[in-house]
């Protein structure tokens, strides 16, 4: 993941209701819940600012109704934001004409949704090739491309099947392959695995991570499942009532939640798989350092077996091999069982 912002949004609002812009002006961009209720407006996205970095998986996570879908729809301009700035590779997205935007969406953005949206009277191959057909790519070329992506998502041999002949997981694989044929620069996935049973869901998450290792797309992934967010994300943006309350690495979301809403999500997280030695080490170094060391980046699940066997503390070394803290057995257990 690089440091270049692929998408930037600043002060983004989406208010639904009779007069969204007038409403924001009237309330000086700081409306309270009572203001919304009194005027029949809804603040689906409220003053949201963040960057999506090139090559990262940014997961947007939050309870039902927190504004995830509205935010993603603003970013893709399937709906118009009420206010704010939106840039794609430093180009002002909100200044593009409708035509330019449709073109951008077709060529640079890929989208996968929870409901597969496959065309029922077309075969798997034709469904996957469809975005290229719209672009006027000749049949042989688009079919070759569709075959390539069908292989990539493990659907070899299903080219001539119709959607009704596929399982839910297979349909979603078709949706994934279809969204990739145009080689999008940004890949939006809105609850793509939510309709699948837990085993298939986990399998597709693994495949998705494998795909990303080779494709290195910039990804915005929506889910309301915190464990899915932890497994997939480079960074997680947690939404509540249309606002991003914390945007951080999975580890920091669990180790240093911004408030009790975020902490509740982290409470049941498998701490040993998420937290690393560096996040929980005591930074105050004693005069005499423990003889054994661990690396700051090592996950607790790797360290626990040895530390619980010998009961010895460890000095925690940073990337430059310098002591960054000390980890005692008590601190380790407290992090795993009490979450701090
Ligand atoms: N077209 C609309 N008109 C009025 N209110 C809307 C509209 N679309 C969404 N909302 C409201 O905006 C808020 C955010 O909805 P949104 O669908 O973005 O949430 P979400 O986090 O994606 O929820 P879910 O996980 O259930 O899909 C909700 O209160 C919803 O009722």
Walk me through the structure.
This protein has 340 residues and is of the alpha/beta class. The chain has 2 domains: 5-270, Rossmann fold, CATH 3.40.50.300; 272-338, CBS domain Like (Alpha-Beta Complex), CATH 3.90.1280.20. It has helices at 20-26, 33-39, 68-75, 98-108, 124-134, 139-152, 168-180, 198-215, 226-232, 250-255, 260-267, 271-274, 277-280, 300-310, 329-338, and strands at 5-16, 42-53, 57-62, 83-88, 91-92, 109-113, 186-190, 218-223, 235-240, 243-248, 293-295, 314-317, 323-327. The strands form 3 sheets. The protein has a 6-stranded mixed sheet, sandwiched between helices. Helix 14 links the parallel strand 11 and strand 12 (314-317). The longest helix has 18 residues, at 198-215. It is globular and about 70 Å long. Bound molecules: adenosine-5'-triphosphate. The site of adenosine-5'-triphosphate (ATP) has 12 residues, from strand 2 and helix 3.
* Coarse structural class: alpha/beta
- CATH homology superfamily of the largest domain: P-loop containing nucleotide triphosphate hydrolases
In CATH, the topology of the largest domain is named Rossmann fold
Assign an overall shape: globular
InterPro entries: AAA+_ATPase (IPR003593), ABC_osmolyte_uptake_ATP-bind (IPR051921), ABC_transporter-like_ATP-bd (IPR003439), ABC_transporter-like_CS (IPR017871), P-loop_NTPase (IPR027417)
Keywords: ATP-binding, Nucleotide-binding
Protein name: ATP-binding cassette domain-containing protein
GO molecular function: ATP binding
């Amino acid at each position: 993941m690089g440091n270049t912002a692929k998408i930037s949004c600043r002060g983004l609002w989406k208010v639904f209701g009779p007069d969204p812009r007038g409403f924001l002006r009237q309330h000086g961009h700081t409306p309270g819940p009572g203001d919304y209720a009194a005027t029949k407006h809804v603040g689906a996205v409220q003053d949201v600012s963040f960057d999506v970095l090139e090559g990262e998986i940014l997961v947007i996570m939050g309870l039902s109704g927190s504004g995830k879908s509205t935010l993603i729809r603003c970013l893709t301009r399937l709906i118009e934001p009420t206010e704010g700035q939106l840039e794609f590779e430093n180009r002002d997205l909100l200044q593009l004409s409708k035509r330019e935007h449709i073109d951008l969406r077709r060529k640079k953005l890929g989208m996968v949704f929870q409901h597969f949206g496959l065309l029922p009277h077309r075969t798997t191959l034709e469904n996957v090739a469809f975005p290229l057909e719209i672009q006027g790519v000749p049949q042989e070329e688009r079919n070759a491309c569709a075959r390539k992506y069908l292989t990539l998502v493990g659907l070899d041999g299903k080219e001539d099947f119709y959607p009704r002949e596929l399982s839910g997981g297979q349909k979603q694989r078709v949706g994934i392959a279809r969204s990739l044929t145009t080689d999008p620069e940004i890949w939006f996935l809105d609850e793509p695995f939510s309709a699948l049973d837990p085993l298939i869901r986990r399998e597709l998450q693994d495949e998705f991570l494998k795909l990303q290792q080779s494709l290195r797309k910039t990804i915005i992934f929506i889910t309301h499942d915190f464990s899915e967010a932890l497994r997939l994300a480079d960074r997680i943006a947690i939404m509540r009532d249309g606002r991003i309350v914390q945007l951080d690495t999975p580890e920091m979301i669990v180790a240093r939640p911004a408030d009790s809403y975020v902490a509740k999500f982290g409470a049941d997280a498998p701490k040993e798989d998420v937290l690393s030695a560096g996040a929980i080490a005591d930074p105050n170094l004693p005069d005499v350092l423990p003889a054994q060391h661990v690396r700051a980046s090592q996950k607790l699940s790797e360290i626990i077996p040895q530390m619980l066997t010998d009961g010895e503390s460890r000095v925690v070394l940073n990337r430059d091999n310098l002591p960054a803290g000390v980890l005692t057995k008590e601190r380790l257990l407290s992090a795993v069982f009490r979450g701090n």
